[in-house]
Design brief:
alpha+beta, GIY-YIG endonuclease, 4 domains, two-stranded antiparallel ribbon, about 15% strand
Length: about 200
């Protein structure tokens, strides 16, 4: 399959460059786009009903990539109506748009999650179930790559919050097995105690 790079030019010498596999079909598409006030910028060449626009086949290429590169060169080196096709920086536009609308987007996503939390939770559950091996492997790889950083972060967090952490450890809470009141940091050992094990066995 070969690809044609072509030029459209009107009687005011205004230009449009493009590429196509079928020049005849593409010409028909451009005329329909102009009649219907479509989205393609070539419609700017038809400034009124009497405009004369001609199509010229410039070069043919064996691959789409080669034709695309030539089209890009012609657009960037000429003052044409589709100049913005390659001058437009989508990444910058997207970044600026998201920054400008971050509060609106945040509110939208918050409302969406609230309205659809059951559906989202169900989909998440299904995904986790289907991909549990993959997820487990990714977590393992991530942990291996970041264990030093995680250890450093944990140490830093502890140093900043050790008073609060130690107070929480000393809190007395109820054992959900036997009902005893035990310090939070002793709960794991308490679960292995004779009293707790007997209560657990009796409940079975």
């Amino acid at each position: 399959m070969s690809y044609c790079v072509y030029k459209l030019e009107n009687d005011k010498n205004e230009l449009y460059f493009g590429m196509t596999k079928s020049p005849n079909k593409r010409w028909s598409d451009h005329m329909k786009n102009a009649r219907d006030n479509g989205t393609c910028s070539s419609k700017k060449l038809w400034y009124d009903g009497d405009t004369v626009v001609a199509m010229q086949e410039l070069e043919w290429f064996d691959t789409k990539e080669e034709a695309h590169e030539r089209e890009k060169e012609l657009i960037q080196s000429n003052n044409c109506v589709n100049k913005l096709k390659y001058d437009f920086d989508y990444k910058t536009y997207k970044k600026e748009y998201l920054e400008k609308n971050k509060e609106v987007n945040a509110q939208y996503h918050k409302e969406y999650r609230e309205k659809n939390k059951e559906v989202i939770a169900e989909k998440r559950k299904e995904y986790d179930e289907k991909n549990k091996v993959k997820i487990s492997e990714k977590k393992k790889i991530y942990h291996e790559k970041n264990k030093e950083k995680k250890n450093a972060d944990s140490k830093e967090y502890y140093e900043k919050n050790k008073v609060k952490i130690n107070e929480k450890k000393k809190e007395k809470i109820e054992c959900n097995t036997c009902g005893s009141i035990v310090r939070r940091d002793c709960m794991a050992n308490h679960k292995k105690s004779k009293k707790c094990l007997q209560t657990s066995a009796a409940a079975i």
